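// run 5 | inverse folding | seed 20
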């Protein structure tokens, strides 16, 4: 009797081999889960306990060998990509991701046919990659990443990741001014009413008592990115993220309205309404007895 072909095992091996080829070509890569999201923090790094990696230029104190910091873990180092810790992730990976900003490019992610039609009528030609729902238009040059700059249009570059779906077709051109303008445009956000985001009165002048103000800043930045990177279950991700931030910083008095506003802005950029944000925040405080 013919034995079935081990499709899943071969696919996982292919992911690692592809990642090594891309890294050798200068593309910072990372493994993605089957749902296209990055692997979450390991127990050591949970809730940003390690200090996190806020950006690629100053990666922070974390020296975790696992790819558990999303886009900030992306690397071109083949020894890291093929290390035992990363191989464990590749065995469960559903695809290969990369950090566009680290490669000096910007991905205009077009999620449906209407968005593709808009791009064809508005943007200059560049390299394009077909996706499951639309297209990726890839331009030379790194800019700020912003979700939902238009209906079904995201910009992925710095502090973001994209899924590798092939080299695409066409010649890559420079990021056009129309795309740069979209990145600078702030999404329309309705701020929550103050009483919906009330926090305990600062006991130490607003200083984070756990480590330092920079620890709080990294924690809020990682929370924003966690919400921004949510590919599914946005409601649950927002609630869990609010819960984690409040658990770490809600009792020491270091959270300010500005910090909370940043979290609400990130959530609303993913489609959450002001009411959903306020409800999630209130529910998280209630769960923590605050």
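// decoded
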């Amino acid at each position: 009797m013919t034995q079935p072909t081990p499709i899943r095992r071969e696919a996982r091996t292919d992911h690692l081999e592809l990642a090594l080829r891309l890294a050798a070509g200068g593309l910072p890569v990372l493994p993605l889960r089957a749902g296209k999201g990055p692997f979450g923090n390991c127990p050591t790094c949970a809730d940003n306990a390690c200090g996190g990696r806020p950006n690629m230029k100053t990666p922070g104190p974390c020296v975790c060998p696992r790819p558990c910091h999303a886009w900030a873990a992306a690397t071109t180092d083949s020894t890291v990509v093929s290390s035992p810790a990363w191989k464990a992730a590749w065995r469960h990976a559903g695809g290969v991701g990369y950090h566009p900003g680290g490669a000096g490019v910007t991905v205009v992610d077009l999620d449906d046919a209407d968005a593709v039609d808009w791009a064809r009528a508005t943007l200059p030609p560049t390299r394009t990659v077909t996706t499951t729902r639309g297209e990726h238009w890839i331009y030379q040059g790194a800019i700020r990443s912003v979700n939902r700059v238009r209906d079904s249009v995201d910009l992925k570059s710095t502090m973001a990741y994209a899924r590798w779906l092939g080299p695409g077709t066409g010649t890559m051109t420079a990021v056009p001014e129309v795309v740069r303008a979209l990145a600078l445009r702030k999404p329309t956000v309705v701020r929550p009413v103050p009483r919906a985001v009330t926090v305990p009165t600062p006991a130490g002048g607003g200083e984070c008592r756990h480590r330092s103000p920079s620890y709080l800043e990294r924690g809020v930045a990682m929370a924003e990115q966690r919400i921004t990177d949510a590919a599914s279950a946005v409601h649950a991700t927002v609630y869990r993220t609010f819960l984690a931030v409040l658990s770490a910083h809600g009792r020491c008095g270091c959270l300010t309205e500005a910090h909370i506003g940043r979290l609400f802005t990130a959530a609303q950029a993913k489609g959450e309404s002001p009411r959903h944000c306020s409800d999630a925040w209130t529910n998280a405080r209630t769960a923590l007895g605050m």
